[in-house]
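Tutorial handout. Part one gives the primary structure; part two gives the three-dimensional structure as C-alpha cells.
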Amino acid sequence: MQLKPQDFLVALKLVAWGEQRWTYARLAQELGISVSEAHACIKRGLLAGLLLPNREPQPATSAGGPDANKMGSDLAAQEPMGIYRVTRKRVRRAALPDDAKAAADNPVRPHTRNLAEFALHGAKYAFPAVKLPLVAGVPTSHSAPAFAGVFAPGSTDFVWPHPNGTVRGVGIEPLHPAVPFAAMQDAKLYELLALFDALRVGKARERGMALERLQALIDPESPTQAKGPSYG
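Part two.
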C-alpha cells in the first residue's frame, strides 16, 4: 500500500471539519474528487495509521462444526422453542453533547498524534514541493492569509497556479490538483495546506512558525510543542 497525496489531503480535511458530521458524498464534493476516490483515501489512511475507525468491527461468528452442533443441541434441550430478537446496546444520544453525537456518527476520525508527526516530519519528503515559473494563482505558504501580518511584505510570493488567481508569484505545484479548489471552500483547510507548503518551501523562520501552528491545529492536546529549526 502506497500513501497518495490525496490521502493526506483527506486527512487534513477531516482535521478542518473537527467534530462536524460528514458523509462521503460531501467529502468528495468539497475536495473535488469522486466518491469512490474518497472511499479509497479513507481506506489507505486507515491502513497507514493516519485515521482511526469510529466503529468497532463486529465479532466474527463461528462457521459451525462438531462443537457448535453439540452446543446448539444442548441449548435446544434446555430452552423451549421461541422467537428471540437481538438488539444492539445503544449509547443514549441525549446524554452526549452535540459535537460528540456528530463525531460518533462519522465512520472515521483523524489519528491526531500520528497525523501530526507525519505532517510535521514526513510529508514534505513523501510529497516534495515542485517550484514552477512565475504565474498568477492562489497564495500559499507565507503568502497565504494564515500568515497575514506575521511577515513583512516584500518577500517572494508563492502561489498555486489557478486561472482565477489574483496574486502573481513563484508557482508551487499543489499537493494534489484539487487543492486550490478545496482550499477556497474551507478557510481552515486552506490554512493547513498553506502551513504545509511553508514547511516545504519556506525559510527557517517560516518553517518554525508552520511547525508550531500545524502541531496546534492537528494535535492540540499534545503535551509537547514542536520547535522550528534554528538554521536555514
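Part three, for discussion. Confidence is low (pLDDT under 50) at residues 71-97, 228-232. The beta strands are 51-53, 108-110, 131-140, 158-161, 167-172.
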